[in-house]
Each structure stands twice: as C-alpha cells, then as structure tokens.
Design brief:
Membrane topology (chain B): Multi-pass membrane protein
Largest interface: A-B, 99 and 105 residues
Strand order of the largest sheet of chain A: 3-2-1-5-8
GO biological process, one term (chain B): electron transport coupled proton transport
Number of strands of chain A: 12
Helix content of chain A: 40-55%
Radius of gyration of chain A: 30 Å
CATH architecture of one domain in chain A: Sandwich
CATH superfamily of chain B: Cytochrome c oxidase-like, subunit I domain
Structural class of chain A: alpha+beta
Radius of gyration of chain B: 23 Å
Number of helices of chain A: 10
EC number (chain B): 7.1.1.9
CATH topology of chain B: Cytochrome C Oxidase, Chain A
Distance between the termini of chain B: 44 Å
Number of domains of chain B: 1
Largest sheet of chain A: 5 strands, mixed
CATH architecture of chain B: Up-down Bundle
Order of helices and strands of chain B: HHHHHEEHHHHHHHHHHHH
Strand content of chain A: 15-25%
Shape of chain B: globular
Oligomer: heterodimer
GO molecular function, one term (chain B): cytochrome-c oxidase activity
CATH class of chain B: Mainly Alpha
Shape of chain A: elongated
Family (chain B): Belongs to the heme-copper respiratory oxidase family.
Helix content of chain B: 55-70%
Largest sheet of chain B: 2 strands, antiparallel
C-alpha cells in the first residue's frame, strides 16, 4: 500500500517537472531575436574596457565554479534519488561523518582563488583611480541637482547642463577629462556604462572620476543613486566630438547670450517672471543658479535632463505644465497664458 | 492564568477564550506561530507591492503608477520583506524549534519573548499606519519614499517633508528593539537550558546557527537603532549628524546603516542555512557531512560578516585602501560559505534522497543560493561593482540570496515543521505545485534582471525610456512575478486545506533524528513529559539504532 502511493507520487512529480522545463525553454527561445550587446560589454573607453575584461575574468571563474558545483549537485540528485517504485527499505545508507582531507582541500582551493582575485582587484583599483589630473588636462565640475546635471568648465568660464561635451581621446596619446563630482542637495551617481563605472555625487564631498571616449558619438547614461521623486528621469548625455569640433563648441559656449529685438516680449516675461530667479542667461540680468544655465539652450538636443527632445512643441509643453513630462519636477508651473508661452518660447529659441 | 492547552481542549473552548489565550501567551511555541502568522500576513502585503512594481515596469513610459506612489512601493516592499517578513519568520522558527531541539520546556525569559513579538508586530503596524496618516509633500496618506536604506540627506526635513519618514524610522526602530530582546533570550536559552548530556558541540546545526545569528543581532542592531535616533534628533531637535549643509556627513549614515545592513544579510541567511542543515540530512537519510567544519564555517561567517559592510559603498569614493580591504574581506567570506555548500552537497552523496516538498525547497535553495553567492563574487570585484552596483544586476543578486536563499529555506521549513506544529501533513501534491511554480517564476523574474542590469538599467526607476532594449527583460520578470504569485496562492490554499483535513502526521512523520520529533505533534505546552538525556548530535538516531549509535563516532 505504502509503496503504491509513493510510486504514484513519483509519477506525478516527474510529470509535473516536465512542463515547467518546457515552459522555460519556450520562454527563453525569443532571446535570439532580442539579443543586443549590453552596454557594459560594448565599452568605448580604456577604463570601461578594463572593467569589461575584469568582468569576463570573474564571469569565467564563477561559471566554472557554477558548472562544477551545480553539476555535482544535479548529478547527485539524479544518481541518489530514491529509485521510483523501489520497495520501502528501512535500512539506512552508510553514514559518512566527514573527511578531513576533503574538507581541507575545499577550504584551501577557494582561499587560493579569492587570494588571486583580491590581488587582481587591488591592482586594477589603483590603476583606475589614483592618478590625479595633471597640468593642462580638461576638468569639468559636475554638480548633481534634483533632477538635473550642471556641468561647469572652469578653465573656459561657462556652465551648461545635462549634456556633457568632451573631446575624443586618442587611445595612443590619451587625453582624459577629469570630472569633479559634487552635489547641491542629495546623493546622486554619475553613470555612463559605455565610458566608465559609476561614481557618487555626495553633498559636502568632492569625488573625482576620469572620463574618456575613444570614438565620437553620443553616450547615454543616468543617475544611478535613488535621489527622490524624479530619479528615473535624470538622464545624462555625453557627446564626444573631435578636438577641433570641441574647440569650436567651447568658443560658441563662451559667447554671451544672443539678444534679438524681435523677441523682446518673451525676454521681458523671462526677466519679470520668476524664470530669472532660477536660470542664468549670461550677459543678461538673469543670474539664478537653481536651475540649468540657459545661455545656449538651443545648442542642446534635449530638455528636462534628457527627457524631451529640444524643440518648439516640447518647450511650450514644458513651460505650460512641467508636471506633464516630469511629475514632481522642481520647475514650477508659472500659469502662463498661451500667448506668454509662445512669446517665451520664441525668446528661448534664439538662445543658440 | 488562562494559558489554553493546545489540542482538543482548546478546540472546545469559546473563540474569545482561545483568542485571549493567544494574546496573553508566553508559550514559546505559540509565540513562534504568532511570529510566522505575522510574517505570512506581511508576505502577502509585500508581495502585492512587488506585483504593482512589476506591472508599472511592464512597458516603457508606463503611466499606471506615478513616481511618488512607485517610490513608496519599493520603499515599503524592501522594508516589509526584510523587517516584517524574513525577520519575524526566522524569529518564529527559532522560537518554536530551539527549546524543542535542545530539550527544554520553554525559553529562558518567556515574558521577554512575548514582548519581543508584540514589539515586532507593533513596528509593522507603525510602518503601515503611514498609508493612512503619514503626511508628506503629496498630502495625507503618504508612505515613506526614501528607499529601505533611507540614505541621508534624502531623509532630512528639507527633502522629506512631512512625517512619512518618521513612520519608517519608528517602525523599524521598535521592531529592532523587539529583535534584540529575541536575540538575548535565545542566547541565554541555548547556553543554559540544554538537555542533560547535550554539549554545546552536540546541538543541532539549526540551534548552533541561531546562536551565532543571535550574537550577530546583538552586535549589528544597536548601530542601526543609534543611527535612527540620531536621525530623529536631526529631524526634530536641530542636530546635524547627517545634515551636510551644517557640517554633518551623509557618509556617516551609510557607515552606520551598513554596519547593521550587511550583517543583517547574514542574520537572514544563517537561519536558512540552519534549516537546510536539518532538512538535507533527514531527506538524504544521512548524517550531515562535516558537522565541525559546518559549525566553524558558521562562526567564521559571523565574524567576517562584521567586516564587509563598506562593499555597499564602493561607488561613494572612499579611500583606495578601504576599498581594497572591504573587497578582500568580501571575497574571503565566500570561503566559509563555500564550505557550507560543499558540505550540503557532500551530504547528498551516497544518500537515499527522498524528494518530498521540504527537500525540493532545500535543493532549490542550494541552486539559487549558489547563483546568488557567485554574483556576489562579481560584486566584490570593485571595478565591476562600479558598473553593476545600483543596477538591476544588484537587484537580481540580492533576490537570489534573500529570496532564492532565505525565503526558499523558510518555505522548506514550513513544509518540514508544519506537521510538528499542527499534527497535520501539508499536501505533497499542492506542495510540489507550490515549489515548481515558485522555482520557475523566481528564475523568470530575477534571472532576466541580471541582463537588464548589464544593459544599464538602474534600480528604483519608476519608468524607463523606450529603445533601451530593456522592455523584453522587464516583461519576462513581470510574467515570472505573477507565476510566483500563483505559487504562493497555492501555498496558502495548502495551509488552509491541510489544517482542516490534512493527513494525520504522528510524532515523527519524516523519521528524523532531532529531539523535536521525540514529543507529540503538536507538543504539549510543557514540551516533554520527561526531559530526555542526550549522548550525541542525533539523539533519535541513537534511539532507533541502538546497535549503531552516533556517540560511538563523535
């Protein structure tokens, strides 16, 4: 009676196990279609490449351990499971209390592995972090705000926001950019996976980070430390351009804001309303520091920290109701009339 | 005193008397069951929060749940699962089992024990009251939204307006004090109340691991309590511990929190290790391989786990030497953890494995915890951590450790000891369904998170832009979450059905070897009619095999 029940249980058990496995296979099959190289494994800077190599090394070691231990586990389960339908046997298998040589062996082997790994880690941490910026290297002060990024180029005397522009660096004669990371409010974290690992921006502390791109292009990143309501929409764009283009960009940014008489109505609204209290427009009375510098707003591709494309419609929507695109944003709804919004957008669009 | 007797006598008494008995009880077994019931209640709450999170992440730019609600959900989910699900469940198991396993009649301080439980429950109630009376920027009914580790200065009045953060502080503070009383009690019980003849190196491994666990609690919880009081002083008494604008330090909070937070991971893992160390031998029909090295590894984990906390802070910009130290220490803890996994696996070797539900969960634990441990090695590799830290890779890692690890083991423990506590067997068929749905759902939920993470998806985002390649992986995760939800539904159905009409269990349904199986199911309030005398680590083996007793070999 008892063995019959056990047999039925086992049948049900294997029957049940078959279909979750099949389900898992079906679920995993579309992987081929959506495969896309993960950003971390498609790096564009020496530091990110070194991290990838290190990742591959650890991945190889852990995969080996997984196959060995997981394999033993699976084999033992298969080999030593109570055979289906076997008559109930009250005798117990041989009791093995332990084995000193085996236990010493599997203590020493992992110890050696982690010793080697520690040394590798220490070497690469020192290589990647402790080199201070030398004379003549480009420095950018990056300040995290709820929920946008301020980028100040102290050598060139201007500030921009959310889109960091850097010159490309030749792999043979590297010219990395050094970021000086600070925070104006809570903790943020600067993370552009293709270029480097993340570093936190901690209030009342200055962190340093090396940024380098070997090819021109736009590299996307984001804040990686939870920083409040709109943590999700605090995106970073790093644009790497050739050194020549970079020089031209710097020269453009150094100019004061354009003033066109045709948009005087919009300019007046900007200076009279609270806009000027939070935003700077260089060469104008607007010297607020709470929000992004708008001197060359139209040189940027996005607004609201990478959330919206920078164009007339989005600017108008943003001014009308910032909470629409970014609920909880620190940008207030100024309750402007549609005419005022249009005049203001006209003015902003001249800030090239 | 109206301590109702378990079993038939209480079934006949009116409901009010029964309830009164439960509320006023100082019986360690009843308190244990209360802890587990509390844990199961909050498991449902935290689980529903997780399902809502997964629904919101189903498609990019989803507007189902707004940012404020979402941020409250992940804060409450994390806090609930750690402080009000895993902690009470492990306290429940320890409370119920330790006195039975060491052959005594109750814990050392039964009234303190009751206080610990009611504080834990009170803490949970405080936390959830925030949904009704918490006030914040968004108005009344705001739960805390600062994340379960509540980094300063996000918790300062300037950034967390209103009182919702206070509910987090007070809820976890009160339950933390409860946990401390539990630990003190447990240590006293294990050290002084073992059955005659039972030496400290003969206690069941679950008891040994709970002893180390309680020691860790006593070292790790006070810094958290201190930090929380400092935060309250900051918020209400004008102190500046964490106020960076006035010379305070945001990093101080991180040190204090993680000095609790990392040992906490092991506080939640050690009881799981203990449960596995009981289940695997019984269902392999073999003695545990290497009891002494298992016990030593536990002590080593306890010790090393106090020196790894700053591996949560590799991106903070600490000194290189600190990063190197904490990286090496984190690697080192893999050694004793490895010993445990090897010992469990070796116990299977040459056994006669009986794949009943508790064993399914134990084996599931071994596989999942192995994966969680190995991704932990990746995270201890500092430069790799700079990339994957605070991404979904990390979310996957700690769920493999805490869910695939701790919770799988605790579920296995439910199936293993349910017959002892109720006298009824849980259904094996429903149990197998529960396990397989959980196992498949779990891997479908958390496996793809590794990939979303290395594709650049940070944690704690309420939505994400299209075109990142993250949609597919998030959808797999959401499907997995709902499969797990069905698994848990089956578990609860199983609990109710089996309690009502389950097979009778008898005293020793699994033919096991530790003392709790030597008494009736459920045990009487005094546990044992006669306190047993113990000569080895498996007293019931000695009883069942008088011709070949364990004490000959120890």
């Amino acid at each position: 009676m008892r063995s019959l029940r056990k047999g039925r249980f086992r049948q049900a058990y294997w029957g049940m196990m078959r279909w979750p496995l099949a389900l898992a296979l079906v679920a995993l099959s579309p992987l081929v279609l959506v495969a896309q190289t993960p950003e971390m494994f498609d790096p564009a800077s020496p530091d990110a490449i070194e991290i990838r190599e290190l990742f591959y090394l650890v991945l190889a070691i852990t995969t080996l351990i997984f196959v060995l231990v997981g394999g033993a586990l699976a084999y033992f389960i298969y080999r030593f499971r109570d055979p289906p339908g076997a008559p109930r046997d009250d005798s117990e298998p041989p009791q093995i209390y332990g084995s000193q040589p085996i236990e010493i062996a599997w203590t020493l082997a992992p110890t050696l592995i982690v010793l080697v790994l520690s040394l590798v880690v220490i070497r690469s941490v020192i290589a990647m972090r402790s080199e201070p910026p030398t004379e003549g290297t480009l420095r950018v002060r990056a300040v995290g705000h709820q929920w946008w990024w301020e980028f100040e180029y102290p050598e060139f005397g201007f500030t921009t926001a959310n889109e960091l522009v850097i010159p490309t660096s030749d792999a043979d004669a590297p010219t990395p950019v050094y970021l000086q990371l600070e925070s104006a409010d809570v903790i943020h974290s600067f993370w552009v996976p293709k270029l480097a690992g993340k570093t936190d921006l901690v209030p009342a502390k200055t962190n340093r980070m090396r940024l380098e791109a070997n090819a021109a292009g736009i590299y996307e990143g984001r804040c990686a430390e939870y920083c409040g309501t709109q943590h999700a929409k605090m995106l970073i764009r790093v644009t790497a351009v050739s050194p020549a283009e970079f020089e031209k960009w710097v020269a453009d940014q150094q100019r004061s804001a354009a003033v066109a008489a045709s948009v005087d109505a919009g300019r007046q609204i900007f200076m009279d309303q609270a806009c000027a209290n939070c935003h700077t427009i260089r060469g104008e009375p607007a010297i607020g520091k709470f929000g992004p510098d708008l001197t060359h707003l139209m040189s940027r591709h996005t607004i609201a920290s990478g959330v919206l494309e920078n164009n007339r419609t989005n600017l108008a929507d943003w001014l009308t109701d910032p909470d629409q695109a970014k609920p909880g944003s620190r940008m207030p709804n100024m309750r402007l009339s549609p005419t005022e919004v249009k005049q203001l957008v006209d003015y902003l669009m001249t800030l090239e | 005193m109206a301590i109702a007797e378990t079993g038939q006598s209480s079934a006949a008494s009116p409901l009010v008397t029964q309830l009164h008995g439960w509320v006023t009880t100082v019986d360690h077994k009843r308190i244990g069951i209360l802890y587990i019931l509390m844990s199961l209640f909050f498991l449902v709450v935290g689980g529903v929060e997780a399902l809502l999170i997964r629904l919101q992440l189903w498609v990019p730019n989803n507007t189902l749940i707004g940012p404020d609600t979402f941020n409250q959900l992940f804060t409450m989910h994390g806090t609930t699962m750690i402080f009000f699900v895993v902690m009470p469940m492990l306290s429940g198991f320890a409370n119920y089992l330790v006195p039975l396993m060491i052959g005594c009649r109750d814990v050392a301080f039964p009234r303190l024990n009751a206080l610990g439980f009611w504080l834990a429950l009170f803490g949970g109630c405080i936390l959830y009251t925030s949904y009704f009376t918490g006030d914040a920027l968004y108005g009344l009914g705001s739960a805390p939204d600062v994340g379960w580790f509540a980094y300063a200065p996000l918790t300062s009045p300037a950034y967390a307006r209103g009182g919702s953060v206070d509910y987090w502080i007070l809820g976890t503070l009160v339950s933390g004090v409860g946990t401390l009383t539990f630990a003190v009690n447990l240590i006293a019980t294990i050290l002084t109340m073992r059955a005659p003849g039972m030496k400290l190196n003969q206690v069941p491994l679950f008891v040994w691991m709970m002893l180390v666990d309680a020691g860790l609690i006593i070292v790790a919880f006070p810094p958290l309590t201190a930090a929380q009081i400092m935060l309250l002083l900051d918020r209400y008494a004008g102190a500046h511990f964490f106020d960076t604008q006035a010379g305070g330090s945001a990093i101080l909070w991180q040190h204090l929190f993680w000095f609790f937070g990392h040992p906490e991971v092991y506080i939640m893992a050690l009881p799981a290790f203990g449960i596995i160390s009981e289940i695997v031998p019984v269902f392999s029909r073999k003695v545990i391989f290497g009891y002494a090295s298992m016990a030593a590894a536990t002590a080593a984990i306890g010790f090393i786990s106090l020196g790894v906390w700053a591996h949560h802070m590799f991106t903070v910009g600490l000194d290189d030497r600190l990063d190197a130290f904490f990286s090496a220490a984190s690697f080192l803890i893999a050694v004793p953890t490895g010993i445990k996994i090897f010992n469990w696996t070796a116990t299977l070797y040459g056994g006669r494995l009986q794949l009943r539900t508790p064993m399914l969960f134990a084996l599931g634990f071994l596989g999942m915890f192995l994966i969680g441990g190995l991704t932990g090695i990746m995270l201890a590799t500092v430069p790799v951590d700079w990339q994957v830290s605070d991404s979904y890779f990390l979310v996957a890692h700690f769920h493999y450790v805490l869910f695939g690890g701790s919770l799988f083991a605790l579920m296995g423990g439910c199936y293993y000891w349910f017959p002892k506590a109720t006298g009824k067997m849980l259904s094996e068929t429903l149990g197998a369904w529960h396990f397989w749905l959980l196992f498949v759902g779990f891997n479908l939920l958390f496996g793809p998170m590794h990939i979303a993470g290395i594709m650049g998806m940070p944690r704690r985002v309420y939505t994400y832009e299209a075109g990142q390649g993250w949609d597919f992986w998030n959808q797999l995760s959401t499907i997995g979450a709902f499969i797990m939800g069905i698994g848990f539904l089956i578990f609860f159905i199983n609990l109710v059905l089996s309690l009502r009409s389950g097979q009778k269990a008898g005293d020793d349904p699994w033919d096991a070897w530790t003392l709790e199986w030597a008494t009736s199911s459920p045990p009487a309030s005094y546990n044992f009619e006669q306190i047993p005398t113990v000569r080895s680590r498996r007293p019931l083996w000695d009883l069942k095999h008088p011709e070949d007793p364990d004490w000959k070999y120890e």
